[in-house]
């Protein structure tokens, strides 16, 4: 079943793939950050952003599962 929460979860998980597979958007050297070309620091920034988005997606998924099982009794983390 597609719900708004599941759409947000999907966007959180797909965004890093789209951002990093679209190489033409970041295949350049400027702007440099502390001497590091844009190409490298952009990818390293996405490591952190991806971790945060995955954490958000996980929290939303758990909340959605608790809401589906009622008040969260007897379920589990699945």
From TrEMBL:
Which residue windows are transmembrane per the record?
A: 7-27, 39-61
Which InterPro entries is this protein grouped with? Answer: DUF3311
What is the superkingdom listed in this entry's lineage?
A: Bacteria
Pfam families, per this entry?
Answer: DUF3311 (PF11755)
Keywords, A to Z, come to: Membrane, Transmembrane, Transmembrane helix
* The keyword Metal-binding is assigned to this record: no
The reply on keyword Transmembrane is: yes
Q: What is this protein called?
A: DUF3311 domain-containing protein
State the organism of origin: Streptomyces liangshanensis
Q: What is the lineage of its organism?
A: Bacteria, Bacillati, Actinomycetota, Actinomycetes, Kitasatosporales
């Amino acid at each position: 079943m597609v719900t708004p929460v599941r759409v947000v979860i999907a966007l959180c998980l797909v965004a890093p793939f789209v951002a990093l597979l679209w190489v033409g958007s970041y295949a350049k050297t400027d702007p440099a950050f502390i001497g590091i070309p844009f190409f490298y620091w952009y990818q390293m920034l996405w490591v952190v952003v991806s971790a945060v988005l995955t954490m958000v997606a996980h929290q939303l998924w758990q909340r959605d599962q608790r809401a589906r099982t009622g008040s969260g009794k007897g379920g589990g983390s699945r």
